[in-house]
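DATA SHEET
Item: assembly model
Revision: 1
Owner: S.N.
Input lines:
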Amino acid sequence: MSEIKGKVLKHSEQTRTMHWVHLICFIILGLTGIAFYFDIAGIVNLFGGEAAASDVHHWTGVIFTLAPLVYVLFNFERFAKFIDTITTFTKDDLGWLKTMGGYIPFIKAEHIPPQDKYNAGQKMLGLLVIAGCILMIVTGFPMWLLKHSMPPVLVWLTWKIHFWTAVILILAVLGHFFLAAIHPKSRVEFASMMIDGYVDAEYTSHHNAKWFAELKKAE
Amino acid sequence: MNTVATKEIINIDEKKCKSCDHCTSVCPTGAIQGRIGVKHYIDHKKCVNCGQCLINCPFGAITDISMVEKVKKALADPQKFVVVQTAPAVRVALGEEFGLEPGTNVKGKMFASLRKLGFDKVYDTEFTADLTIMEEGTELIHRIFAHAGVPGYEKEGPLPQFTSCCPAWIKYAEDKYPKILPHLSSAKSPQQMFGAVAKTYAAEKLGINPADMFVVSVMPCTAKKFECQREEMIASGFQDVDAVITTRELAQMIKEAGIDFRSLSNEEQADRLIGTSTGAATIFGVTGGVMEAALRTAYEILSGQSLGVVEFKAVRGRKPVREATVNIPVKELGKTVPLNVCIVTGLSHVDGVVEDVLAGRSKYHFIEVMNCPGGCINGGGQPIRRDTY
């Protein structure tokens, strides 16, 4: 029985709110986008038909763009720390990636190196999501607002980039959902982002040992 | 692709349409219905069949009807004498389909490949482009005389005179501005003049029964497929032009036949009977070309003088609406008359010009209208360069 008890605050209220807003936007954008691309009338009709679904997609895209901007504006230090963490890769991160943190059944993981607030996989997901969202935004707005002034080859290019980035993001988010909400080794983290922000200290002490040590030191 | 002859020339493939809405920005008549995220369709009553949406669709979701099978059937029929004409803008674009630089003149290779495809006579539409300009130029002179009160020309049409060789412009004028029709030149387009001449004069000279003659046009233009089906285009007693194929479709036929286009000689000539032409006919395919050709004719006839420099550079350029004044010494009136001309390229720019004419505000004597930006060279039947659009 571990001696570590209690909980640590991993995600602030504003972070959780931004995550919720972005998640809802992502689901709406994903559903309507898939419906447009593959011409699925059932989904389109859920949003009130082609024209309404189109409007929903565009204006949800606006919220999808503004939500993180507002978050960064009011939480710049927190965001800077987040960026610092996910862009810092040490030999411990490489060690985690070699064993995939013990999440993949057929990869042996006798020793998993200590991790920061986010493990190497989460860091890569974070970078992927940020890059993906930027690509979706910088292609999405021209598709909507510059559709008449762009040459056809640019229209084609923006649509292709938008589509394939969406495919990658949807797959990444599904993987993220599986690990955060379903996988028995890590689903305890689900509540920390989706509900109260807290995660078990005991769990943190071995899943995010470096961060936990920082917290202890600060204490 | 629809292979049945129909007047609904341009169609959107709903399964391929991504609803990106780009096409609505290039349609000059607002015939495409839809908005971003909503499947688009064409209102054929408004569509002028120009194919600009087709060549600009980022996803290749817009097609034109094909008459290629009809042409192949005629070529395979030993009873048919199959004659082909080629428009001026085709020869400088066809090479693109075979990896040559845009603008490369492959006239000789084109004639050689048409002979290899089995056409009995290979002609050049430039011959009838010259006929068109003689007709149109003479008509303009008569209208000017009528306007000046010269006796004997009272029954001529009003000024300004509009050109009449662009089938998209003709349909647009008929649909939207029927009152402007008396201002349009009564001359047929070079394509239709060729069909009529082929099935009358050429048939007689060649000893062919016009009923057995099948006339094919190779055009840079999808609207020509509509024009050849017009009920009134039967001057020869038969449908004057039986089928129209585009530059793209000719390239496809050449490829399917396994002809090594690039290795063909570029020295071959059109057959001579109705194949002779002038440089004025060659410039028909570019905006301002018909105007320049008409001015050359009008100047020589009105002044009785031979032109030293034949170019009228003032009418050239890429602006959608251009105007120029050419001073012509009119022998019959004994004075120099300033001839005000206007060139419109792109139907979306023509409304103001037409409305001025209908309101009596127009200062022009002669107005050239071409639907496609830049002229026939940028027609809806030309090769699609998705890498450079």
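QC remark: The mean pLDDT of chain B is 89.
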